[in-house]
Amino acid sequence: MVPNDLRYTAEHEWVRMTASGLAEFGITDFAQAALGDIVYVSLPAVGDVLAAGRTCGEVESTKSVSDIYAPVDGAVAERNEGLDDAPETVNADPYGAGWLVRVSVDGGEVLEGLLSAAEYEALISAS
């Protein structure tokens, strides 16, 4: 299932703009399924400045450790503190309660260059 209202990266992160103008992101359902049971999530601190395409954290599962890549440029406004105690939320609800970070972005076309749902579906179906 690939929600149509989100944008995606080739590294399997999703991003949406919130009503408050923050860019919220997490990992896709495809990514969490490939990782298996998530046991730990390392997220950037509030105030950290992220650069699109750069590593900003890690997701550890019973199978492996995978990098999280920032899908947009900006400063971390919020991190999902609930994942400290319940990292498995990413498995259960990757597009909802399993969000990772909310980023304060500078206007413009923040989501430009990211994949549409159809483009992301094509990417993962070729995997």
From TrEMBL:
Lipoyl-binding domain: which residues?
22-104
Against SUPFAM superfamilies, the record matches this protein to: Single hybrid motif (SSF51230)
Does Lipoprotein appear among the keywords? no
Alphabetized, the UniProt keywords read: Lipoyl
CDD domains, alphabetized: GCS_H
Give the family per the record: Belongs to the GcvH family.
NCBIfam families noted in UniProt: gcvH, PRK01202.1
Q: Which HAMAP family does UniProt cross-reference here?
A: GcvH (MF_00272)
> Would you tell me the protein name for this molecule?
Unannotated protein
Q: Which organism is this entry from?
A: freshwater metagenome
